[in-house]
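Q: I have 156 residues here and want to know how they pack in 3D. Can you give me a structure?
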Amino acid sequence: MLRYRSNLRSKVMGTRAIVAAFAIWLAGVGVAWADDLVVVVNNQAPVQQMTDRDVKEIFLGEKAFWGDVKIVPVGYVDGATIQNQFLDKVVNISENVYKTYWIKRIFREGGTPPRKAASAEEALSIVSRTAGAVGFVYASQLAGATNVREVLRVSN
């Protein structure tokens, strides 16, 4: 009987630890999802504001130039939370559909898919150094960024 209670107590404690860890993780995800997405462009880009539709067209490769300036969209590596949120809120498709779309587009029509950044810092760096670049970060990550400007805010 004592051995049974000990095993049961260990299982309960293990389950509580798993639930606590999950709750902490979920709280972190909630914070990320609560922050607005901000679409940014390089300061030299000839646009002051953009609509959801403008951004969607750029990230689907349907719009490639602003006059004579080549547009360079900057997304994130596959599986990034911000990438999935952006695709859901702005492009209105899942990551898997987006990847399939670009594979088909490249083989059928050509085109260049968005560059992939591993972090917000890298995305902001690419946008700040590339004249026609368009990227996105969480609003809280924009503080201190140079040579970029906000053109669209997507609320959560």
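Q: Anything worth noting?
A: DSSP finds five helices and seven strands in the chain. Residues 36-154 form a domain with the D-Maltodextrin-Binding Protein; domain 2 fold (CATH 3.40.190.10).
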